[in-house]
Amino acid sequence: MASIPEINDARDVFSQISPSYDIVRSAQPERVHEPGYYGLPILKRPFWKWEIALYFFFEGVSAGTSVLCSVLRATRGRRHREMIRAGRTLSFATMLVCPPLLIADLGRPERFHHMLRIWKKTSPMNHGAWALTGYGLLSTIQLCLIWPAWRLPFGKRIVRLLQRLLPESVVDVLGMPFALTMISYPGVLLSTTANPVWSHTHFLGSLFAASSMSNGAAALALLSARCKDEDLHRSIGRFEDAATTAEAAALALYLGTAKKAARPLFKGKQSGLFLIGAIGLGIVAPALLRRARSPVLRSVVAPLLSLAGGAALKWAITYAGQESAMDVELANHNAPMIEGQAQTRA
Amino acid sequence: MNEGLVQIATDLRDTWTRPEPPAAQEETGFFTDTTLCIGCKACEVACKQWNQLPADGFNWTGNSYDNTVTLSDTTWRHVAFVEQHDAATDSMRWLMMSDVCKHCQHAPCVEVCPTGALIYNEFGNVYVQQDVCNGCANCVVGCPFGVIARNKADGRAHKCTLCYDRQKDGMVPACAKSCPTESIKFGKVSELREQARQRVEQLHARGETDAYLYGNETWGEYSALNSFFLLKDKPIVYNLPEAPRRPAAHLKRNYLFSFMASVALTAVSALLFSGGERG
Ligand code: SF4
Ligand code: SF4
């Protein structure tokens, strides 16, 4: 974007009150020769920024780890109790970060619970609020079930009662749909908007989902770094490969369907983070490093890079919405035209 | 202490209480005929006054006579000014258009709003219930026309209410009332649509063949608009999208692919983890 001249007038004062004026400033320099109306954007810039980007990352790690822990418990729970305990603890800790981030993002934080007034079929954010509530509750219970009650600072009685009443397998089964929703909805939330880079595709949801699963696997790999069981390492490593492959495939589908709308990811402020961070360091590098000889590279460096890549991916795509909203051409043709239904003059 | 608790309890109860909505009436809307607009901005001023919206400052944009630039949380009517020069005949023409929330029949802002703050009121107008909105800003990214915005000072989303308060008292919205040329017409949507069609015919008969209606009926994946326009050039000339997106049309497919990815990967993990046990 061209450099933006300072405007020293009352609008500066008002831009404190109303953010729409930021748009005015950024659009001014190139107004004359741009298409449309003085080159002004059609869409409003998203208000979703770092809180939401970080939320997508943390909830992805949390829910991804949670799903994998449930699978691990069902398949080889007896052997890897320690592992599952560590996984559940990490999943719980990353889950705890989520509500504050979401609440901080609101214009009226004290009204967060208004999202739980209703159930709304067409609103992914509403689905997310319910899923997070259920998921938060169940992941707390899961944590209680896996830690021996005597090691807790307080609440020993309740925990013992829970442990007696609720078999882990039942809670795991109950928690699964919530965790899967947590993994699946964030991309859909972004996609069901008018913002081109998020919405000109049906695969952003799958991309975020695959990234969250691979982040969950990376978290498990890190936690199992000191575990002696070679077999476990091999299984986790194979799953990391599978998840990374799925992520790469979803990314290809996303870029292939978004086409021009993906421009802000290749040009502009987010391109470095996207190309180097998300793809280079987050997908390619870990896949190569998992084949390295050194166990440190394999089970410490590779998963760390993969986690950082997940954060970079979600950050870059969330912020790409800022530039995408300024794109007049794409906002103008925001949906496929149906033949004969265009209303423009011939 | 006690009072505070009682207050919180009442607030909580009110959050989940839903009184009977008023009985539905015939749908109302705007028909904005841009061929009649003289760019006097009476509508902008009347809207600001009636709705007690703050001024936008004294900025000189240099974009013709347009100094309010865009619809926003504090500007609910916005007059666009387009100066066109025809090189062939070396003549000028002015296009002026009073823009406003489109009050879409299937409004994306309503569809994505997670709190249910955005509703269709009894007049079929899209309305933000200010006591419900929590400022999540989902509607801001949902609207394909860039109409609604979140206010920094009060943290909630604002846009044209179609003067809900005035309509309740049987009055015409402030902008339509003040418009000296009747470029802004308020009324029952069914009647406005008929009126608009006749106006287009009239203009065509007079040789103004570029006149057409924007948002009079469903187009592409988008619903008709209850606040629609008569335009003389491509929509984009007035900063309106030619093919607006309706996010809800893509919801199912998005979810389908997304859940396919997460469920399939979970199944793969189960396969891999249990395979190891045996081997
Ligand atoms: S124009 Fe935008 S704000 Fe107005 S009803 Fe339609 S989607 Fe909602
Ligand atoms: S900002 Fe308010 S009106 Fe807009 S979607 Fe969120 S709760 Fe609904």
Could you explain the architecture of this structure?
The complex is a heterodimer of chains A (346) and B (279). Chain A is mainly α. Helices cover 68% and strands 0% of the residues of chain A. Chain A has helices at 10-17, 20-27, 50-76, 81-105, 124-146, 156-165, 168-191, 196-199, 204-223, 230-258, 263-266, 271-289, 295-324, 328-332. The model of chain A is unreliable at 1-34 and 340-346 (pLDDT under 50). By secondary structure, chain B is α+β, with helices and mostly antiparallel strands. Chain B is 32% helix and 18% strand. Chain B is built from eight helices and ten strands. In chain B, strands 8-1-10-9 form a four-stranded mixed β-sheet. Chain B has a two-stranded antiparallel sheet with strand order 2-3. In chain B, a hairpin with a 4-residue loop joins strand 2 (77-86) and strand 3 (91-100). The longest helix of chain B has 28 residues, at 251-278. Chain B starts with a helix and ends with a helix. Classes of the chains: A mainly alpha (346), B alpha+beta (279). At the A-B interface, helix 1, helix 2, helix 3, helix 5 and helix 7 of A face helix 1, helix 3, helix 4, strand 6 and strand 9 of B. One iron/sulfur cluster (SF4) binds next to helix 3 of chain B.
Features:
heterodimer; A: 346 residues; mainly alpha; Formate dehydrogenase/DMSO reductase fold; 68% helix; disordered C terminus; B: 279 residues; alpha+beta; Alpha-Beta Plaits; 2 domains; two-stranded antiparallel ribbon; 8 helices; binds iron/sulfur cluster
